[in-house]
């Protein structure tokens, strides 16, 4: 966690600072053991990351090959911003969670100012869970039952077709113009 959140190429961390951060987390460590641990992490055969030493003034250690590249996180953040079916509140929460996959310094770069022309965000939180239910049904090959609804002027859901229940066998979801159809 320390390497992911506290380091990047521009912000290496010194071993004494690492010892301090470990102590704040209730872990007692000595400098020598930290050096040994870094070497052990780098020698592990299936480690998805590498810890690099930056020598010289202001040097220290930082992690490369983080779970996501910054450009990938920015792309995901932009997709969340642009999505009509994700509420503004849920968008904020998701973007904060995505920010945990990079250093706290780079996380600031994820605060994107994306304006999607003509895009209205959903006001309904439950839509994410409905989408998840549909994905589960598709994966399991199950049918789903639902009522078609529209929003009225008071922002209340009103069933179409006198509340008729529909049963379908979903096999794919289509995302078109920021909306799942």
UniProtKB/TrEMBL annotation:
Name of the featured protein: Uncharacterized protein
Naturally occurring in which organism (per UniProt): human gut metagenome
Lineage: unclassified sequences, metagenomes, organismal metagenomes
């Amino acid at each position: 966690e320390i390497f992911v959140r506290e380091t990047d190429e521009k912000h290496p961390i010194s071993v004494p600072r690492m010892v301090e951060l470990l102590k704040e987390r209730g872990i007692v460590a000595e400098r020598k053991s930290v050096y040994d641990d870094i070497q052990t992490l780098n020698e592990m055969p299936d480690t998805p990351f590498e810890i690099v030493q930056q020598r010289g003034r202001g040097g220290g250690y930082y992690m490369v090959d983080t779970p996501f590249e910054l450009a990938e996180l920015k792309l995901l953040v932009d997709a969340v911003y642009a999505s009509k079916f994700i509420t503004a509140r849920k968008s904020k929460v998701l973007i904060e969670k995505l920010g945990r996959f990079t250093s706290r310094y780079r996380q600031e770069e994820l605060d994107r100012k994306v304006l999607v022309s003509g895009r209205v965000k959903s006001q309904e939180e439950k839509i994410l869970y409905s989408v998840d239910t549909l994905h589960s049904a598709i994966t399991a090959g199950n049918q789903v039952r639902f009522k078609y609804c529209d929003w009225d002027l008071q922002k209340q859901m009103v069933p179409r077709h006198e509340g008729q229940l529909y049963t379908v066998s979903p096999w794919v979801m289509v995302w078109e113009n920021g909306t799942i159809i």
